[in-house]
Amino acid sequence: GKESETARPHRPPSRLGASIDLQHSKWERAVSDYNVAITRIAAVDIEGRTRSGFAYRNLKKSDLALEDFTKVIQAPPKDVEAYRRRVYIYRLLKQDDKATIDLKRILKLKPTDADAKKQLQATESAAPAAFPASKPRAQKKPGMKATPAPSPSPR
Length: 155
What we know:
Blueprint: H1 15-23, H2 27-40, H3 46-58, H4 62-74, H5 80-92, H6 96-109, H7 114-125
């Protein structure tokens, strides 16, 4: 049979192929290739796991993204950005207790990390006992500046 133009060219799974798939938002193919490449390497493939975790995050497979980011965190050297990526997933899953632990780890590794300080303050100040029912919490992505709610303009 004749292959369609969109069919994957025959090539063995590789990190390069996975990287190309990632750039083209082909999340399933990227994960598949990274999983093959990752298992061929004895040590933790930090870059491969990081990118695989990113692809899983985009596939909304948070448990698998957390698994990859956790393996990166467990590998030396300790990577602040790996913790930050895991904080992002924990916050998506509304697991602020786990996000708080990782934010504290970031600050232990990099005490001057302004973003981690800011997120930690926001997370700790939003503890369940501090949730007034009438005051909505501002949502923000890690690494982005919080934008205050617009105040009514005087007329």
